[in-house]
Amino acid sequence: MTVKLFSFLFLLSSLSSFSQSEKTDHYLTQEENETWLANFQKLDNKNAQLEAVKEKIIFDAKFNYSFITGICAGVGEHTRIKTEVKNTKSRIKKNTADCKIFFVLNTDQSYFLNLKKQENHKEILDLLNASNIDTITPLNRGAMAIYGARASCGAVMISSKNAHLIESLKKLSKQKTTKF
């Protein structure tokens, strides 16, 4: 009897510790995004900034935005509750995030860079290099004033007037690239 009890307690404790590590590995918090932005602002080299942006966009692609956190713009309370209940089950299966940093490429048009929504944005990332980018500007909480609730974790605005890049982007946009 004692062996069974000991075995049960051991199994129970190992399961709870496993589930805790599982939960933290698959959840992107607003604080993590704020830390990333703070570290990004310390970078003084355009090459390093661009590499950090590319890595972050690729990293964020594995996370789904979760309405469970209560961040939901323009939706009534009744709808939000329905969405929370609906997404609670999927939260266990998918990587979720409080919010994501909003990455925008501004040329003659604006492109919201999100590999989760548009896989061909990977091609856009491949086109970007320090020589065809004019500025990379991190926007913290003030990003909501420009881009709304979708930038609640901040935004990074990449600007370019490079003719070759703009022409390449136009070709890609004909292949169903989402533009904003």
Task: Furnish the topology, listing elements before pairings.
Layout: H1 2-25, E1 27-28, H2 30-41, H3 46-60, E2 64-65, H4 77-93, E3 96-97, E4 102-106, E5 110-112, H5 121-127, E6 135-139, H6 143-147, E7 155-159, H7 163-173
Parallel strand pairs: 1-3, 2-3, 4-7
Antiparallel strand pairs: 4-5, 6-7
Signal peptide: 1-19
Keywords: Signal
Summarize this entry quickly.
This protein has 180 residues and is an alpha/beta fold.
Description:
The longest helix is centred in the N-terminal third of the chain and has 24 residues, at 2-25. Strand 2, helix 4 and strand 3 form a beta-alpha-beta unit. The strands form two sheets. A four-stranded mixed beta sheet has the order 5-4-7-6. A three-stranded parallel beta sheet has the order 1-3-2. It has a domain at 28-63 and 100-173. It has helices at residues 2-25, 30-41, 46-60, 77-93, 121-127, 143-147, 163-173; strands spanning 27-28, 64-65, 96-97, 102-106, 110-112, 135-139, 155-159. With 180 residues, the protein is of the alpha/beta class.
